[in-house]
Amino acid sequence: MTRAAADGPPVPDGPGPLEVWASRETVVGDTRVRRALPHRSRRTVGAWCFADHMGPLAPDATPTGIGPHPHTGLHTVTWLVEGEMLHRDSLGSEQILRPGQLNLMTAGQGVSHAEEPTARGGGGGMHGIQLWVAQPEATRHGPPAFEHHPSLPGVELGSALATVLVGTLDGAASPARRDTDLVGLDVRLRRGAAELPVEPSFEHALVVLEGGVRVDGRPVVPGEGAYAGPGRHQLDLDSTEGARLLVLGGAPFESAVVMWWNFVGRTRQEVAEAGRQWNDGADRFGDTGSPMARIPSPRPPWDPSRL
Ligand code: MN
Q: From ligand 1's centre to the CA of 268, what distance in Å?
């Protein structure tokens, strides 16, 4: 149903249909990832700007980790389903991350970190998700920071158990930092249906980690990203086999962002400059103390004379 505006095109009465797309397959370090965000039609969803579904690796596989690399202008949000990794950063943090725990690193004006295999090595495989959240203008030039949250609140919703990684659900609030209106949920859906209440002013992305789910009646499986626009009061989920999915929502972001390599900025000049500074060993990125080799910045793909 649409109604005609006084002049101009018809205005939809409610939210548009769910959009579903295939994630882009790539390799980070030695791990297969399926990149649900950014997508050409959805660069940001709320402030969420990057979603890499990592693995799963075989239980006996040993991930090699990711050597020291820089970030600017974003939070990294790391959440594991299986396996473990050692986070080390230029703030002096050294933190093993295990399933059910959240690492949240704020880059601000500059940070560097490494994700190292643990002494336990394989024996747990590797399966998880690496998310980035764009920082707003108000905080993106601020200091870096790191948080580890060993436990997070859970909410029962019919056939689902939702863990609140960021933001709030049904009165349960995550202790994790957020600089904009944002929610991040890990939803484990048993066989059957659940109504997930959502903030109507938020847009949402969905990333299915395991199983298969119907969202508002539309099937979504691992390897796909999905988008639900603002105007909804709930997402109707159901599954015949059970599913695990991430629901990432927020108020539409304040501006367009420029993402290149590991940087989120507003202009090509500033992200290109960050890459040059990393390669020059600039102080803004500090030193992780990791034994792994630093990853050098590539050259920007665009023509520098046309910045
Ligand atoms: Mn990183």
A: 20
pLDDT given at position 128: 94
pLDDT at res. 5: 45
Cα of 83 vs centre of ligand 1, distance in Å, is 18
Q: Are 258 and 265 in contact (CB under 8 A)?
A: yes
Q: How far is the CA of 54 from the centre of ligand 1 (A)?
A: 13
Q: 123, 170 in Cβ contact below 8 A?
A: no
Return the amino acid letter for 217: G
Structure tokens at 252: 């539409």
Low-confidence ranges of the chain (pLDDT < 50): 1-5, 122
Residues 260, 304 contacting (CB under 8 angstroms):
no
Distance 55 CA to ligand 1 centre (A): 16
| CATH 3.40.470.10 corresponds to the domain 23-250 | no
Distance 25 CA to ligand 1 centre (A): 18
What is the whole-number distance in angstroms between the Cα of residue 5 and the centre of ligand 1? 46
DSSP strands (E only) in 59-110: 66-71, 74-82, 85-89, 94-97, 102-106
Q: How many CB atoms lie within 10 A of CB 99?
A: 13
**Cα-to-centroid distance, 174 and ligand 1 (Å):** 22
Could you tell me the two tokens for 202? 């938020």
Ligand 1 centre distance from Cα of residue 274 (Å): 14
CA 169 to ligand 1 center in whole angstroms? 27
CA of 7 to the centre of ligand 1 (A): 48
251 close to 180: Cβ distance less than 8 angstroms: yes
Q: What distance in Å separates the CA atoms of residue 275 and residue 297, rounded to the nearest whole number?
A: 5
Domain ranges (residues) in the chain: 23-250
Report CA-CA distances (Å) from 185 to 45, 73, 163, 237, 291: 14, 22, 6, 14, 34
d(CA 260, CA 53): 19
